[in-house]
Amino acid sequence: MQTSKRNCFRLDDFIAGWIGGASSVVVGHPLDTVKTRLQAGKGYKNMLHCVLTIYRKETAAGFFKGMSFPLASITLYNSAVFGFFSNAQRFISKYRYGDGRHPCGMLDLTVASMLTGLMSVGLGAPVDLVKIRLQMQTQSLLAENLQLAGNASSSTNIPLSSVDISGQRLYRGPIHCISSILQTEGVLGLYRGAGAMVLRDVPGYTLYFIPYTIFCNLLTPDDMSSPHPCSIWLAGGLAGSISWVTATPADVVKSRMQADAQLQRKYKGILHCIIDSYKTEGLQVFFRGASVNAIRGFPMSATMFLSYELSLKFFRSL
Prior knowledge:
Elements: H1 11-40, H2 47-58, H3 68-97, H4 106-135, H5 174-185, H6 194-219, H7 229-246, H8 248-259, H9 270-281, H10 290-317
Helix pairs in contact: 1-2, 1-3, 1-10, 3-4, 4-6, 6-7, 6-8, 7-10
């Protein structure tokens, strides 16, 4: 992936980023929904049980809940991620070697990847939060998050466990979700879980771009100027699986904090979420959804990199 020679502000980079990102969302969103339900939902024994439960109760459409917003916003996000990563490499090469076209070493790639992960949180946190809130719509709200003011007077003693709200929908769609969050939680509400997202994405992008680059180099013969599409697909898939599996503990904390939507929240912060989750569910809770991440990470990233690289190659051959 010779990103150091690309212009991140070219239109074809934006279009290729949209195509790659949109393709990966369509491919990976069903398993992303399963992952979110396992990490932040209740009543699922394992991945297969979660899949069957969603299908029985919500049909196939249940796997695509919350997809419209990330799909619509993927143009900006993926263009910014790949553009920033390319630009960061050129800046580092210019600073260290005096030439922005100089190939980056492993340390240079690591710094560029970490900076990209940090930047991505600013754009991705609100998108991820809205996606998770919409994905969790059919889940029974936690009792401690229930606000009964609109349904009963404060003097009415109604056991929280007796209130059936499983069929209610909090949000009519992504726009209504954003509006509701802004009204009840303010602008900072859109960035709930952003700290955990930093813990996930900074090392996550490092273990995303670097393995991809290494695998592409290993799978590309010396006499070829660019990787074969099969090499891109395999390298992207392996990089995605590695990145997502290692990021699972931080992803669990992020998902729980973002799904913790009501005014009377369960988690006060990242540390409280970690301690409370550990006390109530043990160490294994932080690896919940790891198998889903490993499975969905491969096709998502393989599709992302392959679509991006082939689209970029096509546009630049015109």
